[in-house]
Amino acid sequence: MSSPTPSLDELRREIDEIDDKIHDLIMRRAQVVELVGIAKRPDNQIVRPGREATILRRLAARHTGPFPMQVLARLWREMIATFSRIQGPFAIAVYAPEDRRGFWDISRDHYGSSVPMTAVNTPAAAIRAVADGTATVGVVPMPEEDDHDPWWRYLMNQDPKTPRVVASLPFCGRGNARGDDRDALAIALIQHERTGDDRTLLGIELTEDRSRGRLKEALEAAGLATVSFRSWTGRESGGGPLHLVEVADYVDLQDKRLSAFAANMGDILLRTTPIGGYAVPLGSSSDPKKL
Ligand SMILES: O=C(O)C(=O)C[C@]1(C(=O)O)C=C[C@@H](O)C=C1
């Protein structure tokens, strides 16, 4: 004999029980995060974008049922940002001029509704806010082909006080964010972390220009698979031509592939600076688990 369908009251009682369990677990997670904050001292880098990406990927891999993964990820983003704030001061500077409110929306989706967030009118102002400690994280536009004053050139030095790219936004879909679908990058005074599925941004300065085809050849011969190129003549600054190349892996300054690339380029290469990178977002082309 099949069991009778539960009544509305019974189902609502079950929902109340589930809510209590979720609530208890969130309160417990907050206590554990306080301990994590203590365990992370003395280096105490509150924000760990690599760990955040790993948490969301793990949940995406086990997710089933009618509740959309994109919304689940949004709930976790709200929690993780708030848990970061429990550990210490945390503020965001977002490039979001009047006509670019989409950046504000994707930043709020990523860093939550409780973290102090300030809109700035230029990417350079977001970089300054991070460099001088006014903001923990800055949000700047994903580099475009026609940027006349690309912000990424300000990150092309090895001074430890220079912010690095640490995440790509949105990480879990745009939802109802306003704007023209333009993605953003988050910068902070930390190194980007290896997560197993990463991109690195290499700033490359040359003495004289070479085609992207030549650069791609020299990078790929060194074992670095290229994803995209952005270029800037450098004439305005009196320097050599600059390229920003996105490569499909985690790369740091000690990576032997950078020395191999330098050997392939010869004297024409002035310097290569990894300006940071990010964990590949959920649902992007290289991620088989679509949102
Ligand atoms: O794992 C950590 O380092 C934490 O601080 C915990 C936590 C989290 O809520 O899970 C919070 C902030 C970090 O950016 C990453 C993860």
Automatic annotation (TrEMBL):
<dbReference type="InterPro" id="IPR002701">
    <property type="entry name" value="CM_II_prokaryot"/>
</dbReference>
<dbReference type="InterPro" id="IPR036263">
    <property type="entry name" value="Chorismate_II_sf"/>
</dbReference>
<protein>
    <recommendedName>
        <fullName>chorismate mutase</fullName>
        <ecNumber>5.4.99.5</ecNumber>
    </recommendedName>
</protein>
<feature type="domain" description="Chorismate mutase">
    <location>
        <begin position="2"/>
        <end position="91"/>
    </location>
</feature>
<dbReference type="Pfam" id="PF01817">
    <property type="entry name" value="CM_2"/>
</dbReference>
<dbReference type="InterPro" id="IPR036979">
    <property type="entry name" value="CM_dom_sf"/>
</dbReference>
